[in-house]
Amino acid sequence: MSLPHAILTALLEKPSSGLELTRRFDRSIGYFWSATHQQIYRELGKLEKAGLIRALDRDVPTRGQKKEYEVLPSGREELERWVGVREDPRDPRDPLLLRLRATGVVGVGGDMVDELRRHRALHQERLAEYREFERRDAARGNGTERDRVHRLVLQGGIDLELFWVTWLDRALADLEDTG
Amino acid sequence: MSLPHAILTALLEKPSSGLELTRRFDRSIGYFWSATHQQIYRELGKLEKAGLIRALDRDVPTRGQKKEYEVLPSGREELERWVGVREDPRDPRDPLLLRLRATGVVGVGGDMVDELRRHRALHQERLAEYREFERRDAARGNGTERDRVHRLVLQGGIDLELFWVTWLDRALADLEDTG
DNA sequence: GAAAACATGTAAAAAGTTACATGATTTT
DNA sequence: AAAATCATGTAACTTTTTACATGTTTTC
């Protein structure tokens, strides 16, 4: 049950429309949580119905017209409750390592090496992007708790991509060696 | 669509019953893919129906009685096809970083620091466990491709836990500093 | 013979993915 | 006026989670 809380957090940081939220999920929030626009619109509908958020301005919302939402006090309370909840780390699920392991029983082919290289490039790209965000952030202030938390989370994104690039390098070195 | 392929891989490595598979998913396969017994039994049923695996021995399967499965040729072919598929890295989804970010807008309390410490301990535990597996593996042979792939995947599990412990240490240092 | 451990399942709900539909606004 | 982009949504499906149900074998 994290999506509604991700949306509440994003809306508290800045009231937004569904599409704007989708874009923010592709950027900063996306370091650790992703969502499609379909998920977001559905969830916005639920949150509005539950009285946790409300649409601004629009009395007569028509299709195709921008609709901005803001968080209501009950929404903020719900988020405050949720941050105090204990939840264990989630089980990892990564198809790439599964595929690699499967090659151990059905045989490889150079295909898997290509695929690992491709993934390495993708992670490298994302890493570069995050480092660019970091560079930009360094210019801005870092006084508030919010800024520090943002920085920590971005650092998490960077470290995670670094993990991937490093592990993929090792895997490629190993497989190219004798593969 | 990875669960059926995870099961096919596990069954090729060694024919097993549903409960045995569940245990193996909690151990080695669990480095990067998890599944509950409910998921596994349902999927075994589907795979059997699709003719990719078959139950051994049992002609009259009754509830509560062990049922072992093995992979049929068509199952192996399906797995061979699947390892060649290109699939982009999956979007990360981690509620902990989401909760941390939420504290940036609703305020922290020492609660989050406690929660980060708790997660650090859990990751540290798992890391120790994986290193124990690594130690044991080192004794065994490493000649076959299968052994090498297993070792790479285990290394991935270790590196991922190391990422968490390192990042959590950094986060704790930062938050305790001024928190 | 009671309890614990082993073993297989069903059902319902929640979350996520994929495909499709449609209207409004801006640019060329 | 056509095309591109902005914007919101529906529907069907798949996957995952949670709660429950039940039978068998081993151990004390």
From TrEMBL, chains A, B:
InterPro entries: Tscrpt_reg_PadR_C, Tscrpt_reg_PadR_N, WH-like_DNA-bd_sf, WH_DNA-bd_sf
Domain of life of the organism encoding this protein: Bacteria
SUPFAM superfamilies named among the record's database cross-references: Winged helix' DNA-binding domain
Pfam families referenced in this protein's UniProt entry, alphabetically: PadR (PF03551), Vir_act_alpha_C (PF10400)
Ranges for domain Transcription regulator PadR C-terminal: 93-176
Transcription regulator PadR N-terminal domain sequence ranges: 7-80
Residues in the signal sequence: none
PANTHER family, alphabetized: TRANSCRIPTIONAL REGULATOR YQJI, TRANSCRIPTIONAL REGULATORY PROTEIN
Name of the molecule in the record: PadR family transcriptional regulator
Protein species of origin: Nocardiopsis codii
